[in-house]
Amino acid sequence: MEVDQLQRSFLEYSRLLFHEGFLDGQFSQLQLLQDESNPDFVFEVVSLFFEDSERLLNDLTIALDQQNVDFKKIDAHVHQLKGSSSSIGAQRVKNVCIAFRNFCDEQNVEGCLRCLQQVKQEYLLVKTKLEAQLRLEQQIVAAGGAIPMLNEFC
Amino acid sequence: MGTYNMDLCNCIEPPWPADELLMKYQYISDFFIALAYFSIPLELIYFVKKSAVFPYRWVLVQFGAFIVLCGATHLINLWTFTMHTRTVAVVMTTAKILTAVVSCATALMLVHIIPDLLSVKTRELFLKNKAAELDREMGLIRTQEETGRHVRMLTHEIRSTLDRHTILKTTLVELGRTLGLEECALWMPTRTGLELHLSYTLRHQNPVGFTVPIQLPVINQVFNTSRAVKISPNSPVARLRPAGKYMPGEVVAVRVPLLHLSNFQIHDWPELSTKRYALMVLMLPSDSARQWHVHELELVEVVADQVAVALSHAAILEESMRARDLLMEQNVALDLARREAETAVRARNDFLAVMNHEMRTPMHAIIALSSLLQETELTPEQRLMVETILKSSNILATLINDVLDLSRLEDGSLQLEIGTFSLHSLFREALNLIKPVASVKKLYVTLSLSPDLPEYAVGDEKRLMQVVLNVVGNAVKFTKEGGISISAFVAKAESLRDPRAPDFFPIPSDNHFYLRVEVKDTGSGVNPQDTPKLFMKFVQSQPLAAKNSSGSGLGLAICKRFVNLMEGQIRIESEGLGRGSTAIFIVKLGIPGRSTESELSFIHKGPGIQAKPNFSGLKVVVVDENSVGRMVTRGLLVHLGCDVLAVASGDECIRVVTHEHKVVFLDVTLPGTESFEVAVRIHEKFAKRPDRPIIVALTGNTDRTTKENCLRVGMAGVILKPVSLDKMRSVLSDLLEHGYLVESQ
């Protein structure tokens, strides 16, 4: 495939991700930080995010499974998840975390469980999308092109 | 007596006995013959002397000699009638012998001479005839010369004026005089060309309006030849005099071509392709028995041609005079109009200059004071009122600026302020300005700058910003849901020649590039037929727009002017109502460093100073429990060139922080007061040292308690997460410059 075409598909895909709210401006900031001295920055951060999130989701699942739900701990975990997702720009995950925290404050188990479900879904979605995007990136780099950027938006 | 006497006197006796009477008569005749014979040569000599022409002189001499000798003979014969001496006889014999000789010679000569003399006579006759002929010819030449003189005189008379009327009148008068005419008339074709109208006559002062149809056979006959034609005195064109008892004289008619300017080709004789002829009719005096002579007819023909030329000259002159008068009038009118226009422009400029100042001053006052008012304590209703005032005055200020700008643009007095500026930051700033508006309407805005877009460009930054803002603002204004995407890239040569913009001819060069910006929105769209009208002043195409329109309709017109000034092109494309629209503009910008302009003026504008301030090697510490967040913040700072030490907990931070670290980024999303304790402990560690590290808080919380707490524990400032690269950059610069954050980010 032509580099031009790849780049255009990449841009379209990125635009779509932003459009649908999966990613926000923070992600493009990360892309900015990728340069010759740090060529795999985005990849590293994203991988770290996946690891972190999976661990947190696991912990959350376990914690909510308990008889006596420790809302403080759940809150801390959700807080972490919120932090990570906002650092990487995973907007929808972050939004669900915010709602999750509210339910925690209310000590609403039902709500929390529902949120957990949602968070998992959103996480899986964003994971798939990010992986697809990373693959496109790799293809472009392999074809010798530069990765075009969607710089900023609100 | 006898012979004895004879012998002694040596005399000769005549052979016969002398008869007295006969001898007397002989004696007398001989005498007269001798006389005659002596006088004839004398007469001949006399006449020969008189005429020098006679070619045969010697013949005459011969003849004279013959006659003389004959005379001598006869004379001597006189002596022989009586007794004569021998001498006399001898003389007589000699004379006779000579005479014989001469006369024979003469006789022989005459045989030769007489034919010659006869031929002389024939020649003489011939010459006489010739002389008569020459005389005749001389007569003819003289006549012709007379005619020529007449023609020249006539022509002179005719051509000495350029007035049509005079020309025609003079022609008739002169012709009448030269040729001794009784009547001379000119028939002109009417406007319709179907009739001939009697226009001028010699004798009648005011010709009555006779007309004859043009299709008469006699008229056709005359029109078909360029020669003067004898016509019958009874034909309608010749019936000019009241019929009298006189025998009318011969009439001749000739055509006069009415030439137009178009008939005169440069290299040919005028083509008589014109169909318009006038008819000149000439009548000899009646009862004069005069005939038209050939030379007179020739004269008439020549005159007719001359008249044609003179008339066309007159017509040309008339035309050119008329054209010149018209031009003069137009000149005067134009001059007046120009002066009026100048006055109007001057008046308008004066007005604008005054209004400019007069209007802006109160506007500024209103806006400034309303802003200040906004900062004070107000009730919600008051706040609403103040906000409305502010919004309205901003709109008014924009309108005033627009109108003033447009006026200056229109009369070409606006000039671009060229300088070097950062393209990237221009777009980012535009984006930042439009973000609030868009987010209020819940619209997304994306910006995509192509990688080959130069960082810096040479052009008018302010106006380009205005264009971008205007276009983007327009897009936002007309979009209710969805969003706007802005993309900017360097236009390639092929894409510059857009079939949709056929009158745009960009010329790529080494010092310039063409920036192409596309702003696509998902808004209400525009009817494709209306797209050209969008850039016209004060035109609002959609009635719906009137409801929520806050513009004057000038914005896009101004954009177009600016874009044109930047040698570019702007247009809006839309597939129809409800289908969104795309605004595309291309402008020409210079490439800094390659242009031959004197200095590169650097204009710093807004946040994000691109002249990378030197953070290299700056030692900083990042404290964040969240691994992802930590990594991101670290990445930011590394990208800016810092030497980053990232730690996961407050304790670790206190352990590793040294005086070499200039800044500590402390993430305070840690629940509880842990982070604040960290700050306090750091302070304690470096108490009394002037170069202790600056502590900055990173937080996701926007509430004021967090901020207050941070400041209370001596943090230099609070940064709101997520942090963008530009934000971090400006934070660092601020911190290094001032030691604290001038405004919380």
UniProtKB/TrEMBL annotation, chain A:
Q: Which UniProt keywords are present, listed alphabetically?
A: Cytokinin signaling pathway, Cytoplasm, Nucleus, Phosphoprotein, Two-component regulatory system
User: Cellular location of this protein?
Assistant: Cytoplasm, Cytosol; Nucleus
Q: Which residues carry this modification: Phosphohistidine?
A: 79
Q: What is its main location?
A: cytoplasm
Might you name a Gene Ontology BP term for this protein?
A: cytokinin-activated signaling pathway
The UniProt entry, under InterPro entries, shows: AHP1-5/YPD1, HPT_dom_sf, Sig_transdc_His_kin_Hpt_dom
> Pfam families attached here?
Hpt
What SUPFAM superfamilies does this protein's entry cite? Histidine-containing phosphotransfer domain, HPT domain (SSF47226)
Name the residues that span the membrane.
none
- One function term, GO molecular function aspect: histidine phosphotransfer kinase activity
| Task performed by this protein | Functions as a two-component phosphorelay mediators between cytokinin sensor histidine kinases and response regulators (B-type ARRs). Plays an important role in propagating cytokinin signal transduction.
UniProt-recorded name of the protein = Histidine-containing phosphotransfer protein
The organism named in the record is Sesamum alatum
UniProtKB/TrEMBL annotation, chain B:
Query: Which residues are recorded with the post-translational modification 4-aspartylphosphate?
Result: 667
| GO cellular-component term (any) | endoplasmic reticulum membrane
How is its cofactor bound, per UniProt? Binds 1 copper ion per dimer.
What are the TM regions of this chain, as residue ranges? 25-46, 58-77, 97-118
> What are the GO MF terms of this UniProt record?
ATP binding; ethylene binding; ethylene receptor activity; metal ion binding; phosphorelay sensor kinase activity
**Position(s) of the covalent cross-link Glycyl lysine isopeptide (Lys-Gly) (interchain with G-Cter in ubiquitin)?**
721
CDD domains of this UniProt entry?
A: HisKA, REC_ETR-like
Per UniProt, the keywords (alphabetical) are:
ATP-binding, Copper, Disulfide bond, Endoplasmic reticulum, Ethylene signaling pathway, Kinase, Membrane, Metal-binding, Nucleotide-binding, Phosphoprotein, Receptor, Transferase, Transmembrane, Transmembrane helix, Two-component regulatory system
Topology in membrane: Multi-pass membrane protein
Any one Gene Ontology biological process term?
negative regulation of ethylene-activated signaling pathway
InterPro entries noted in UniProt: CheY-like_superfamily, ETR, ETR1_N, GAF, GAF-like_dom_sf, HATPase_C_sf, HATPase_dom, His_kinase_dom
Subcellular localization, per the record?
Endoplasmic reticulum membrane
Q: Which domain of life is it from?
A: Eukaryota
SUPFAM superfamilies tied to this protein: ATPase domain of HSP90 chaperone/DNA topoisomerase II/histidine kinase, CheY-like, GAF domain-like, Homodimeric domain of signal transducing histidine kinase
Q: Can you tell me which family this protein belongs to?
A: Belongs to the ethylene receptor family.
Describe its function. May act early in the ethylene signal transduction pathway, possibly as an ethylene receptor, or as a regulator of the pathway.
Q: How does it assemble?
A: Homodimer; disulfide-linked.
Could you tell me which PANTHER family the record lists for this protein?
ETHYLENE RECEPTOR 1, TWO-COMPONENT SENSOR HISTIDINE KINASE
Name of the molecule in the record? Ethylene receptor
Q: What's the source species for this entry?
A: Sesamum alatum
